[in-house]
Amino acid sequence: xLHLSAAAQGFLLAMGLFICPGPKDxxxxxxxxxxxxxxxxxxxxxxxxxxxxxxxxLGVSAALETFPPLQAVLQAAGVVLLVVHAxxxxxxxxTGLTAAPxxxxxxGDGNWVRRLLVMSLGNPxxxxxxxxxxxxxxxxxxxxxxxxxxxxxVCASVVWFTAWVALAGGASHWMSSPKSWRVVDTSTAVAMFxxxxxxxxxxxARF
Length: 207
What we know:
It contains eight helices and no strands. Helix 1 packs antiparallel against helix 6, helix 1 runs parallel beside helix 7 and helix 2 crosses helix 7. The longest helix has 29 residues. The relative contact order is 0.23.
């Protein structure tokens, strides 16, 4: 029996969380502009959400709540991850690294895939949305409803990233000049640094 109300709850709650772009969304937008495979971008982004939601529902969210040091370690690792990506984007903005029209062909296919996987699975903002919030809500439901809640949440992720990738694809015709790429890279760096500072301040407040 399908628990449609649980599926709808998962979809609406997840969409409400995903609709505010975070560091992963910024990175996906940038990779679309670089001409990466839209199907692969959606698959990695939504697939990672599926993994994290499942982990949350299966008990990781409860473990994080009952063992604060683990949450602090993960948050510190997330700050480092965000700073590294921010520095990469800042360097690109300063040097025009991605401004060339054929820049996407100068980087091995595995590099951007690995970078997106790390950002998708290691980004603390993603963990907060999927493992902590969605996972804790899903875990509190009866087993059948918990499954359909998770399905609804994953469907929201697919819908969101499909729309996000389409939006980025529509903006690609604006990216013909080095100045446009510097704006994108600068915005990426600011977003990453901003999230890192926010998480760092929150981490320090715990001690």
